[in-house]
Design brief:
Length: 147
């Protein structure tokens, strides 16, 4: 069986909390046998949201775009490693923190509905400095929208 692995550096942010918000992600997908690496980037304005809502939206959009890119059969063979600078979102997605806010619970469920189509999805917390590409894509979308 062909193994496919991917890394996703994603970020969401709002100017104000809530405020104008955007998402950014850098997705790299590698086929173990062909050694090909495909790179996708996401940079999108998402309207008025909180920072945490934007972080979840970045995860959901990254999952959807990866599935769209791979197709159904390859998605089932794919392991994705997410690197996110929001400790709260990582801990919630890893089921280590309870979700008390109804809107975040709704987004958590949406994310999990996308996750089930993959072989495996892992979430790791990283420092903000290690997430510069995704952060820049968030800023790019916000700057473009707010001008």
């Amino acid at each position: 069986m062909t193994e496919i692995t991917g890394t996703v550096f994603c970020d969401g942010g709002a100017r104000g909390n809530p405020g104008p918000a955007a998402i950014g992600a850098v997705i790299k997908v590698k086929n173990k046998f062909t050694k090909n690496v495909d790179k996708l980037e996401i940079s999108a304005y998402i309207g008025e949201k909180t920072n945490n809502e934007a972080e979840y939206q970045a995860v959901i959009k990254s999952l959807k775009e990866t599935k769209k890119f791979l197709g159904k059969s390859k998605t089932k063979k794919t392991t994705l490693d997410f690197f996110i600078d929001s400790e709260l979102i990582v801990m919630q997605l890893n089921r280590q923190y309870k979700i008390k806010e109804p809107r975040l619970l709704e987004l958590f469920i949406k994310a999990n509905n996308e996750i089930i189509d993959f072989k495996k999805v892992n979430f790791y917390h990283i420092r903000r400095e290690k997430n510069k590409e995704a952060d820049a894509l968030v800023s790019k979308a916000l700057d473009k929208q707010i001008r």
